[in-house]
Amino acid sequence: MKLTKRQGTYLGLATAALLLVTLFVGIGINQSLFSASGFVSQYLSALSRHDAASALSMPGVADKLPEGADRALLRGSAMGELSNIQITKVSGTDAKTTVTASYLVGGEKATGTFTLKRIGTMLGLFESWAFAELPVATAKVSVWHDASFDVGKSGLIDLRSTTSGKESTVWGGTGTYLLFAPGNYVFDHTSTWLTAKKVVVNIASPGDTEEVVVDVEANTAFNKRVQKEVDDFLDSCVKQRVLQPTGCNFGYQTGNRIVGEPSWEVAEYPTIDVVPGESAWAVNNAVAKLRITGEVQSLYDGTISPLDEIVDAVFNITITIRSDGSLAIVLS
After folding, report:
1. What's the total number of domains in the chain?
2. What is residue 65's DSSP assignment?
3. Which of 34, 230, 320, 324 could cross-link 126 (Cys pair, CB 3.0–4.6 Å)?
4. Quick one: which of 96, 82, 95 has its CA closest to 41?
5. For residue range 184-226, what is the model confidence (pLDDT) as tens digits?
6. Domain end among 164, 196, 218
7. Looking at the domain assignment, is residue 212 inside a domain?
8. N- to C-terminal Cα distance for the chain?
9. Residue 121: pLDDT band by 50, 70, 90 thresholds?
């Protein structure tokens, strides 16, 4: 079909308009998604979603991690709150562009600067970028009195299962780990018998370094379990109607003669406080009060007098946590 001159003019104008629209849309997309600021925004958005895979896939991240660097904490479950992301400044050249952003890290205001380089253009229009400097931080994590720690919602991480912490022992050690930056990380320990106070680390900017100590302690359940063991032990001992109960860490001595059988009772159970020892858990110098009653006959004149005295039982206890999670409790 042959177009009239007027129709050809309209078609030409429509085509030109479409090209202009396409150009402006392309420029807008380039500025919002494919610019240096858009590149950093995508990275920060991935971190805010706890999307470790997307963050690692961006040019200049996983492909530039140092050989042998411990990546055990580069996981979404380790991340905390990152919000209110805003790009505040972009400067530099294609070879080195810096992008500054502000955000809330764990609810606290922070800013960070990211260094990029332009690596090409897609379709002759859209810019391609990569991180020129790794957008990560480093944390040296020391665990005392156990080999495991939690970070975020990661569940227990055993130092000995990680590259940098493999020399650790059941009683503790240290590992050095990479962390996405920025980021909010909460370190602690929660298990059947153990706990640790939370250590909050807010990484503001790439390149930051932090030292974290996870001081693992016996929890309430641990103390109650050992308390019950000691209480049951004493309850068993006082059933013996002798001066020196067999297998027990207390007794009574006299230079006279006991008439009949003495009776024992627990006057005061010891207060158990499980603390770290040199290489195992311990209870140090916990004191119980035992009451002995009965009658004593003097060997000098044969008189009989009542016996009613309090004696101490001192407990020093060693406890280890077996591999199956049960406790090995040794009383002394």
Report:
1. 3
2. S
3. 34
4. 82
5. 999 999 999 999 999 999 999 999 999 999 999 999 999 999 9
6. 218
7. yes
8. 107
9. confident
